[in-house]
Amino acid sequence: MNWHIREAVRKLAAGGVVAYPTETVYGLGCDPFNGTAVRHLLSLKNRDVEQGVILVASEFSQLEPLLQPLTRAAIKRVQNTPATPVTWVLPCLPEIPVWLRGQHNTLAIRVTSHPVATDLCAAWGGPLVSTSANIHGRLPATSPLGVRKAFNGQLDCILHGTRGSNTASEIRDGLTGTVLRQGSTTHTNEV
Fold first, then answer.
1. pTM above 0.85, yes or no
2. Which terminus in the chain has less CB density within 10 A, N or C?
3. In angstroms, rounded to a whole number, what is the distance separating the alpha carbons of residues 191 and 174?
4. 135 belongs to a structural domain
5. Pick the residue with more confidence: 191 or 92?
């Protein structure tokens, strides 16, 4: 593990907000179980808690304990994600905090294939909040410089790395496979 990842994990453990590259654009993350950290992240973005957030993980086993028991078909669907990034919406346990699920009884999850995001989640040892690095309603940042300009020193750490495309992740219902949002060029979409 490189020292940049170790430093990001240290900041996350202290309740910080970090930026990192994803398969799409730069994302903002924090400890999903630290309500103060999540609310701070949402405040930075000017995003309503009722919308909920996406959780990203390096492997499905980091997310499964947060979900209602799934059928084999649903697990297979989520684990056999296509090459393009897909965020899955699945029924969550009732005790999942409102700051994660918003006004829903579901949780949005994605197993990342991005090397920096994967290393960060693996080093952290669990899922992280993953939301696009932008003020809500504005274009997401696509570089560390874009992140710095958008948040003007308000973040605890910015990890560098190449990112994927400018296409937002597709969002699908994990029980049925139904597409809820097509992967589209990110204008004001959240990743």
1. yes
2. N
3. 17
4. yes
5. 92
